[in-house]
Design goal:
single chain, 294 residues, alpha+beta, Acetylcholine Binding Protein, Chain: A, Methane Monooxygenase Hydroxylase, Chain G, domain 1, 2 domains, 6-stranded mixed sheet, 4-stranded antiparallel sheet, elongated
Length: 294
Amino acid sequence: MRIEIGLYILDIAHLDVKESEFYADFYIWYKAPADSVWKPENIEFMNGVIESATPLASGTSADGQQQWSQRIKGRFRGHFELHSYPFDRQSLPIVIEDAEYTDKELYFAADSASPADFNLWIEPELRVPDWKRAGATCATDTHHYRTDFGLGSNRKSSYSRFTFSVNLSRLFMPHLVKFILPLLIIAGMAYVVFFINASEFEAQCGICITALLSAVALHNSQADALPNVGYLLMSDKIFILFYIVIFLALVQTVVNNNYAKRRRFDMAIYLDRVCRFWYPAILFAGNILIYLLS
């Protein structure tokens, strides 16, 4: 039995990456053959909790099929991959299954009367703060459960699954202001030590330590807005690079101070000049590598 499903997304809001949740408001309709006994009461949203739903309105479609429609509002969960954060893309899925009929009795399909371009299934004025739309996808597959749900058949259960996803990419400008610019300013603080006289050890050391602590504080504030994951994000790798380079700047101030105490000012000046070149070069090359390899 073929059941067609169509959606029209009205709004997506309260996207919470830390909790892997989002709010969705949409119309949904189902179509079944005219002689079918199927009813949409057994439809389940596998990754969400419905907060409100209008009563099902039934009718007959132009091609003679049974049709039901309703408006649904609810919270849904996604599996957000953050390896490329803050340059990541996310997919917000709405996953549907029938609780009664297995895949041998029923399979889902996208509504054949709706546009083939799934971007047209979304309200054109839809906006998600800090994100931009990057298309939409619709897929049907079979989901296998390694249980018989207590029926005693000792068999696996398989059900047809319908998934509609809204794809988003993170906007660059908000994170340029919140993440990249502060980090560049912190790195610039540490860079100043290469222009200070080697005999001014306390000033150089204080600047490097302040820069290092500022980077740690910025890293922690960013981590508070993200879920705990078992892998390094791109942003984590960038912070680690900055930690290493700022720490090396601190080591350089110690070495230069020793040269100054021994009256080797020529070596101190030479080391400052070398670091003035290599400090930004390492940061630039390191960030490019992190971006390409993440």
